[in-house]
Design goal:
Elements lengths: L1 H6 L5 E5 L6 H13 L14 H8 L5 E3 L10 H9 L12 E5 L7 H12 L5 E7 L7 H4 L3 E4 L5 H11 L4 H10 L4 H8 L2 H15 L6 H13 L4 H21 L11 H9 L5 H17 L4 H15 L2
Parallel strand pairs: 1-4, 1-5, 2-3, 3-4
Helix pairs in contact: 2-3, 4-5, 7-8, 8-9, 10-12, 11-15, 12-13, 12-14, 14-15
Length: 317
Amino acid sequence: MRSLAHAGTLSHAYLLTGERGMGKKTLAQEICLSLFCSSPDPLGCACRTCPECKKVLSGNHPDIISVTHSKPAAIGVDDIREQVNDTVDIKPYSRDRKVYIIDEAEKMTPQAQNALLKSLEEPPAYVSMLMLCSDEKKLLDTILSRCERIRMDRIPEDMIREFLTVEKGIDRETADICAAFSEGNPGRALTLATSDEFKNTYKKVLQLLKNLNTMDASQFLELADEFVADGTDLQEVLDLISLWFRDVAVMKALGENGSYSYRGEMAALRKTAAGLKENTPAEVLSEIEKTSKRLKANVNKELSMELLFIKMKESGR
């Protein structure tokens, strides 16, 4: 970004798109660090220690304006007029750059978007706008046509695992599950890894999966009812079970050479795989998909989970 600014090719508006948790805010902060750092390294990367960087990291830089809104569901025309249009001509305080950040830009009303066009069409040379958006379909074509888009794609599982273990100090077993569970979304992975509710659900599901052959039917039904009574996210339960049976299928096909979500439970996976017929994991996965559809169709939750657990119990015979 710094090199683009010096070369005069920095766009006046960027649209950072991607689902919630994909790192749009983090990228916006990194862009600001790059633009404002007073002591960059030879490659132009921010030092993160100079006064300018510290202001960016603390959220107190005077030349970075984060647009706020009083209504949770909407960014109104007055929000844009007062915070952007009425201030855009005020020159930067400390540097040669001024950045506006509009988070959840999809919440701008059509009137607010039309008001923003005034500042997008002919902004002062020192102004850059960063719009963060989870659903760009809600933005007007006139807005989209005036922005350079940066798409936040899904992150490979191994990179999320490294982020959790190295950057956040999460233990490897938790990182493995949360990375596989996150579907390429690092924000979701971190939320799960630090959630006591998810850890509790994981512990209960793992106990269930590791004891398929020793728990009797009444224990299975009791656990199914407990999940529902406790308000547990049943889709999370289904997803955790799916990961296990996918691992079992991989174990049956590839043995130790496969890639596993439940990497810390290799002995239990081997034991489960050895006791199942070749097509049993696929049958259970199919039953999990049926259960998910039943839950979405508002079929009785207790009955849906009980039917699934009975099927799982029968698979271990």
